[in-house]
Specification:
With 486 residues, the protein is an alpha/beta fold. 39% of the residues lie in helices and 8% in strands. It starts with a helix and ends in an 8-residue tail after the last helix.
Length: 486
């Protein structure tokens, strides 16, 4: 969007990313000093290698029902975070742009890069057709991921009965900073567009060779996720299976960490010691063997590090010996106050991985197997994850749950909370489950603020309208044709 594109910065590359300039030919032939105009296939590859493409600034961490807030710290948090947590109708003032769209790390900024590569790389110099098609395919995956984030923030959940008329978001296909007219496509059109981008990309994508390079496994992962959000469980299973098949050819390590080992301070592989507010030896996302493609969300903000914590309901889901609890702290940072009712802040690292990962693959496949009646297969998948998260004597799925389909699906959905608490991924599950006739009752549609004694001092209820953020008045003023959410 015009108002957003003018803030685009790619300092790590020092690349001038202007796709069209209205001026004389002789000016176009002069290369600006200190910049590289993307001309060669290698130049476009460098655009896709920008490190900022793997980081994100998301609203979902403040919206999900796995979170609560501490009264003593709440007023000191950023107003944006407070309003998101309260499910406020207006998160931004009339003169503010949404952080989700205007921040330098936003998906709109990335769309510019991905569209530039998609539209221009086939005409680039010094590259083979195979190289160009591969880069174009990677950019199509990136564009689909950006559109999915855009839809998750600013449109209602996908509902097959109404998706053909429900408003989605503008589908942006040009790297054009002069564009000012934006019309919202329907949600179905948006989902169809993502599926086409990903499907078209698949034949040209390679194996997992780098966690910051889109691969066939990553594309299959997102196709599976998109179909899951659509409640098209058969197609979702096809692509989740495809992701598992694709990772078999990975040239870099891909495996679950055994938390019984890496979270044991006495282990040779330990992530301890704990230093500078994080585990000193926790692997960087680019080297994390559980990660298929690296997308991280920041979790460490001094003005809210003690504000937003896991809720008492989330705390109650864990067995006391679950090693995932070691990733959290029950004590305030810079103090000795112990959060009441088992509430905890994420303390393992400064970032949480929210992109394609092995834990997510196992849990999605487990859920799909359970929904299809393959209870034994579902139990095996979720049990394998749990065996790497806690001692063997508590990792086994209870027999009464493993033998009952609704109970097992619910157990797997709760396992997703245990695995991804505080990451914001729960919000995306909430969205799809809110329109699920069987499991909408597994979502808590409230947020609570607690005092130091564990008493609820404020409660906020999520209305269906607030599954979609509002664009805000400034965004409407500066982008003609954009229709506001109710």
């Amino acid at each position: 969007m015009k108002v957003l594109h003018k803030y685009l910065l790619v300092p790590a590359l020092s690349v001038l990313v202007l796709s069209q300039v209205s001026c004389k030919k002789d000016f176009l032939e002069i290369q600006p000093k200190g910049y590289t105009i993307a001309k060669t296939t290698s130049d476009y590859e460098q655009l896709l290698n920008a490190t900022y493409l793997s980081t994100t600034f998301t609203a979902s961490g403040y919206l999900a029902d796995d979170m609560a807030a501490q009264q003593d710290y709440f007023d000191g948090a950023l107003l944006r975070a407070q309003r998101l947590f309260r499910f406020s109708d207006s998160v931004y003032l009339p003169d503010e742009l949404p952080t989700e769209l205007a921040d330098p790390l936003s998906y709109i900024q990335r769309l510019y890069i991905f569209n530039k590569v998609i539209n221009e790389v086939m005409q680039s110099q010094n590259g083979t057709d195979q190289q160009k098609l591969a880069l174009q395919a990677e950019a199509k995956v990136g564009r689909a991921v950006c559109l999915l984030s855009f839809l998750n923030d600013f449109s209602k959940p996908y509902n097959a009965a109404t998706a053909e008329k429900d408003l989605g978001v503008p589908i942006i296909t040009k790297a054009d900073v002069t564009q000012t007219q934006f019309v919202r496509a329907t949600i179905k059109e948006g989902y169809d567009f993502m599926i086409k981008d990903l499907t078209d990309a698949l034949p040209y994508l390679g194996q997992v060779v780098n966690r910051r390079k889109f691969s066939k496994a990553a594309a299959e992962f997102y196709l599976g996720r998109i179909y899951l959000y659509m409640a098209d469980f058969a197609n979702a299973r096809t692509h989740i299976d495809g992701a598992f098949a694709a990772i078999a050819g990975s040239t870099i390590p891909l495996a679950l960490y055994d938390y019984n080992d890496v979270l044991d301070p006495n282990s040779a592989d330990s992530w301890y010691p704990y230093a500078l507010f994080r585990f000193a030896n926790i692997p960087l996302s680019a080297n994390n063997s559980q990660i298929i493609y690296n997308i991280t969300a920041s979790t460490f903000f001094f003005n809210s590090v003690n504000t937003f914590v896991t809720s008492p309901q989330t705390a109650a889901l864990y067995d006391p010996s679950d090693k995932r609890l070691d990733l959290f702290s029950n004590t305030e940072l810079f103090g000795t106050f112990v959060f009441p009712k088992g509430m905890r802040r994420y303390a393992a690292d400064f970032n949480l991985d929210i992109g394609p990962s092995l834990p997510d693959l196992y849990l999605m496949r487990a859920e799909l197997k359970a929904r299809a009646g393959d209870l034994a297969g579902a139990t095996t998948d979720v049990g394998y994850l749990r065996s790497n998260r806690m001692p063997a004597n508590v990792a086994t799925v209870p027999t009464n749950i493993a033998s009952d389909q609704p109970s097992l699906v619910k157990f797997i959905l709760e396992e997703r909370i245990r695995e991804f608490a505080s990451s914001g991924l729960r919000w995306f599950d909430e969205r799809r489950l809110s329109v699920d006739p069987l499991y909408s009752n597994t979502v808590r549609y409230t947020h609570e603020i607690y005092d130091a004694d564990g008493n609820v001092v404020a409660s906020y209820t999520l209305r269906p309208e607030r599954f979609a953020l509002k664009f805000g008045q400034r965004m409407l003023n500066e982008n003609k044709g954009l229709i506001e959410n109710p």
